[in-house]
């Protein structure tokens, strides 16, 4: 079940608030605790609250700290994007959303308002956010002053754009001509035929008209009278520049009177008309030119029993009239009439039972790299582990260490001479506080002699002498591995400078493999655009036999499960099913049978080609009865040559983030880096190592 819904619009003034208010009322009727989140809000004056947030929180009395209901202002996001820090934006949004998700049964997420020019960027940002939160989307558009073709074309384009990355549960077209509802809905359904719900809500005058309060705020006006009637709707407006007898016949119901501040005749005449049974009610009076009525007139008005809002503004009559014509209606916390009307309109035109059922049964198949990395970080934070980094003189290692310490995600030990490491940190201007890490020189460690003696006892049957043990323990890979063996660290990450053999040899000598495991193997977490795949073995075993390949598959599936990935294992080969012949494909077939006969309940398919494993259409064509074909999450390659080349090809051609190699099968976690690794690679590998240590 999804724990949230994302409401996105595709244009300004879409009436998105109607949908948000209606959804919130629906959700509160279905579940006890509903949260609300706006990833990006408009820029605000100091101390001012976002109107959307204030309206929803106030009306529904939500128990949420205001600062936790949004992540960034519009300017902050644009600034970070211009600095190339779009990933940082997503990370913070995911973090804030997840904190609400933990507190509430369901979270309603409201997208941006499209109130500025760069609509293509805004559309992309909303798609990216909803995708990385793993939420289905309701798209809101508006049909005011548009023909059918324009409405249908824009809705179909938006639907197709969102559908590439996220699930669209419903499309709601707002502000449609009341006479065209059935025709418009039919035309939308002929274009969008994949089962997405289509709803059309008519234009509602009460919601389209701004209040006097909104007009006053937009014009920076001074309210002279009628504070208690500022929520009056202004359904039209007219200028009182002619003689009163001629102007009175032009008054309309709920109209706004615009007149210079020195026109006492128009002011008093309009007020008298408002209380007369023979004339329509007016919404309020706008006094232009910064002119104030004379004291005697003000005193006369003050003595009236009923006074509509009278607002003084500084602009001239023509400018003010033009400005009022461009003011768009909004819904705000104090205007309960508009809120009630909005909820009623939503409930009248939206099939709420059907929508609620879709939300309850929805399960997202999308799992983005950002979601995966967030989950990794949270798991590591839950049980902080101690990781040793033997290559303390490498700049990348030091920069990764700074990030890890700043995130408070692990305890770290760097191996090397303390003075040299501190000198490098200062020289390279790395923001790493050495008081927050352990720096250990192997030969100066108080544990050095104990480590030497332990290694000697462990390896003397291999003709290792005490002197040889002492010399070996000066090696940072051996020293770091011994820290794990003795319980002074929980895991080790190395390989930025050293070879795989150098990193693994000590682990194989005395950390050894888990009970029942004969083979150390590796996987890469391939973080593709919309999913995480596990590739194994792409780093350790050159040409495994069938038994070894089966063990790699079982270990890789277990690793996937430990990291929250449902293992559906594809044993890759150059043919799918029973058609292929030859030693290589027979090895894969035998390995698949071994996994099945070991009593494993793994979902596994093999032999199978890569395209059939990951592409649903091809998978169903080649292996129509397979529950793995087209859905594989764990891909096992027949040999190192194939695996290593494939992971690098996928990484380079798709831009996928490859985390690994992650070693599996050892009693304690030791992970090997590529010598071409980046700071991000080291950071991610340390976090994964910490999580592996939690599972030991």
TrEMBL record:
<dbReference type="InterPro" id="IPR050500">
    <property type="entry name" value="Phos_Acetyltrans/Butyryltrans"/>
</dbReference>
<dbReference type="InterPro" id="IPR027417">
    <property type="entry name" value="P-loop_NTPase"/>
</dbReference>
<dbReference type="InterPro" id="IPR002505">
    <property type="entry name" value="PTA_PTB"/>
</dbReference>
<dbReference type="InterPro" id="IPR042112">
    <property type="entry name" value="P_AcTrfase_dom2"/>
</dbReference>
<feature type="domain" description="Phosphate acetyl/butaryl transferase">
    <location>
        <begin position="371"/>
        <end position="690"/>
    </location>
</feature>
<dbReference type="Pfam" id="PF07085">
    <property type="entry name" value="DRTGG"/>
</dbReference>
<comment type="pathway">
    <text>Metabolic intermediate biosynthesis; acetyl-CoA biosynthesis; acetyl-CoA from acetate: step 2/2.</text>
</comment>
<dbReference type="InterPro" id="IPR042113">
    <property type="entry name" value="P_AcTrfase_dom1"/>
</dbReference>
<feature type="domain" description="DRTGG">
    <location>
        <begin position="214"/>
        <end position="325"/>
    </location>
</feature>
<keyword id="KW-0963">Cytoplasm</keyword>
<dbReference type="InterPro" id="IPR028979">
    <property type="entry name" value="Ser_kin/Pase_Hpr-like_N_sf"/>
</dbReference>
<comment type="function">
    <text>Involved in acetate metabolism.</text>
</comment>
<keyword id="KW-0012">Acyltransferase</keyword>
<dbReference type="InterPro" id="IPR010766">
    <property type="entry name" value="DRTGG"/>
</dbReference>
<comment type="subunit">
    <text>Homohexamer.</text>
</comment>
<dbReference type="GO" id="GO:0008959">
    <property type="term" value="F:phosphate acetyltransferase activity"/>
</dbReference>
<comment type="similarity">
    <text>In the N-terminal section; belongs to the CobB/CobQ family.</text>
</comment>
<protein>
    <recommendedName>
        <fullName>Phosphate acetyltransferase</fullName>
        <ecNumber>2.3.1.8</ecNumber>
    </recommendedName>
</protein>
<dbReference type="Pfam" id="PF01515">
    <property type="entry name" value="PTA_PTB"/>
</dbReference>
<dbReference type="Pfam" id="PF13500">
    <property type="entry name" value="AAA_26"/>
</dbReference>
<dbReference type="InterPro" id="IPR004614">
    <property type="entry name" value="P_AcTrfase"/>
</dbReference>
<keyword id="KW-0808">Transferase</keyword>
<comment type="similarity">
    <text>In the C-terminal section; belongs to the phosphate acetyltransferase and butyryltransferase family.</text>
</comment>
<dbReference type="InterPro" id="IPR016475">
    <property type="entry name" value="P-Actrans_bac"/>
</dbReference>
């Amino acid at each position: 079940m999804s724990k949230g819904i994302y409401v996105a619009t595709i244009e300004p003034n879409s009436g998105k608030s109607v949908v948000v208010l209606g959804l919130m009322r629906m959700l509160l009727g279905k579940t006890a605790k509903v949260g609300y989140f706006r990833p990006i809000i408009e820029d605000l004056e100091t101390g001012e609250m976002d109107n959307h947030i204030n309206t929803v929180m106030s009306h529904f009395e939500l128990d949420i700290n205001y600062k936790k209901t949004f992540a960034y202002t519009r300017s902050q996001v644009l600034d970070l994007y211009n600095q190339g820090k779009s990933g940082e934006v997503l990370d913070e949004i995911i973090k804030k959303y997840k904190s609400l998700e933990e507190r509430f049964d369901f979270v309603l997420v409201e997208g941006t308002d499209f109130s500025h020019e760069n609509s293509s960027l805004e559309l992309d940002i909303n798609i990216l956010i909803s995708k990385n939160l793993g939420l289905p989307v309701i798209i809101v558009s508006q049909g005011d002053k548009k023909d059918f073709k324009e409405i249908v074309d824009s809705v179909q384009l938006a639907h197709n754009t969102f559908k590439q990355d996220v699930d669209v549960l419903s499309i709601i077209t707002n502000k449609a001509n009341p006479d065209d509802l059935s025709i418009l809905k039919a035309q939308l359904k002929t274009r969008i035929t994949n089962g997405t719900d289509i709803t059309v809500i008519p234009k509602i005058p009460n919601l389209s008209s701004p209040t006097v309060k909104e007009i006053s705020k937009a014009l920076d006006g001074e309210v002279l009278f009628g504070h208690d009637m500022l929520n009056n709707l202004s359904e039209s407006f007219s200028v009182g520049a002619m003689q009163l007898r001629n102007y009175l016949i032009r008054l309309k119901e709920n109209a706004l009177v615009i007149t210079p501040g020195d026109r006492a005749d128009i002011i008093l005449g309009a007020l008298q008309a408002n209380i007369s049974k023979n004339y329509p009610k007016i919404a309020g009076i706008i006094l232009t030119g910064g002119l104030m009525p004379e004291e005697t007139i003000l005193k006369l008005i003050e003595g009236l029993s009923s006074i509509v809002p009278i607002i003084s503004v500084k602009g001239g009559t023509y400018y003010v009239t033009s400005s009022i014509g461009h003011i768009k209606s909004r819904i705000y916390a104090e205007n309960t009439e508009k809120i009630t009307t909005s909820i009623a309109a939503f409930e009248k035109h939206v099939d709420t039972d059907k929508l609620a059922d879709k939300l309850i049964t929805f399960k997202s198949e999308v799992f983005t790299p950002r979601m995966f990395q967030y989950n990794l970080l949270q798991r590591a934070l839950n049980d902080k582990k101690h990781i040793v980094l033997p290559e303390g003189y490498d700049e990348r290692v030091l920069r990764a260490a700074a990030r890890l310490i700043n995130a408070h995600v692990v305890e770290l030990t760097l191996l090397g001479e303390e003075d040299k490491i501190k000198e490098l940190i200062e020289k390279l201007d790395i923001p790493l506080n050495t008081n927050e890490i352990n720096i250990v020189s192997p030969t100066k460690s108080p544990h050095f002699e104990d480590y030497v003696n332990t290694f000697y006892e462990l390896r003397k049957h291999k003709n290792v002498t005490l002197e040889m043990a002492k010399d070996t323990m000066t090696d940072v890979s051996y020293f770091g591995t011994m820290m794990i063996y003795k319980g002074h660290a929980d895991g080790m990450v190395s390989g930025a400078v050293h070879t795989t053999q150098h990193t693994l040899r000590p682990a194989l000598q005395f950390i050894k493999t888990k009970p029942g495991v004969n083979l150390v193997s590796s996987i890469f977490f391939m973080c593709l655009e919309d999913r995480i795949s596990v590739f194994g073995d792409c780093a350790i075993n050159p040409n495994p036999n069938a038994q070894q390949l089966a063990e790699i598959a079982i270990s890789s599936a277990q690793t996937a499960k430990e990291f929250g990935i449902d293992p559906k294992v594809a044993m890759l080969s150059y043919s799918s099913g029973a058609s292929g012949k030859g030693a290589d494909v027979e090895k894969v077939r035998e390995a698949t049978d071994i996994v099945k006969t070991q009593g494993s309940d793994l979902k596994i398919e093999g032999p199978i080609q890569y395209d059939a494993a990951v592409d649903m259409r091809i998978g169903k064509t080649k292996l129509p009865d397979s529950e793995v074909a087209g859905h594989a999450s764990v891909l096992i390659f027949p040999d190192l040559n194939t695996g290593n080349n494939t992971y690098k090809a996928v990484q380079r051609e798709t831009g996928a983030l490859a985390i690994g190699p992650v070693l599996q099968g050892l009693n304690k976690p030791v992970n090997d880096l590529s010598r071409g690794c980046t700071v991000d690679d080291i950071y991610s590998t340390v976090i994964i190592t910490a999580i592996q240590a939690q599972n030991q």
